[in-house]
Amino acid sequence: MESKRQQKMASLLQQELAQVLQRDLPHLFGGGLVPSISAVSVTPDLAVARVHLSLLLGGDAAERVEAIREHTKEIRFALGKRIRKQVRVVPELTFYHDDSAAYASHMDKVLSQLDIPPAPPEEQEDKPETPRPRLFNPKDDE
């Protein structure tokens, strides 16, 4: 369970890293699609941030994550310039590939290909409804 402090820092890092990757450093991706940041988690001491990148289009995800890892110093420096008045120390950044969107797409495709027959209609029996037992006798109230 993350503390409020960790959650605030993770939210700040997610917003600012998105700005850094899209506006300040788009040249790092060679004219390709800029990855989106799906999640950021921060350690309790706020020293390390785990950044999960969603790389849906644009080639091999492992190569793209490795290219981003090579430019971690530049990304951290640009991030530090943006958040220097809000934090004391800019956390170390570790980047991971988040393939949850691709997995969800794959599962959706698998489920749509299933051939599930409709359920048979339920037969309604003509049973007389049994009366509920009374918890008290209405004659006792009089």
From TrEMBL:
InterPro entries named among the record's database cross-references: KH_dom-like_a/b (IPR015946), RbfA (IPR000238), RbfA_dom_sf (IPR023799)
Chain intervals for the UniProt region annotation (Disordered): 113-142
SUPFAM superfamilies given in the database record: Ribosome-binding factor A, RbfA
GO (cellular component) term, any one: cytosol
Annotated GO biological process: maturation of SSU-rRNA
Subcellular location: Cytoplasm
Sequence intervals crossing the membrane: none
Biased composition (Basic and acidic residues): 127-142
GO molecular function annotations of the record: ribosomal small subunit binding
Major location category of this protein: cytoplasm
Cited function: One of several proteins that assist in the late maturation steps of the functional core of the 30S ribosomal subunit. Associates with free 30S ribosomal subunits (but not with 30S subunits that are part of 70S ribosomes or polysomes). Required for efficient processing of 16S rRNA. May interact with the 5'-terminal helix region of 16S rRNA.
Name used for this protein in its record: Ribosome-binding factor A
Species of provenance: Hymenobacter ginkgonis
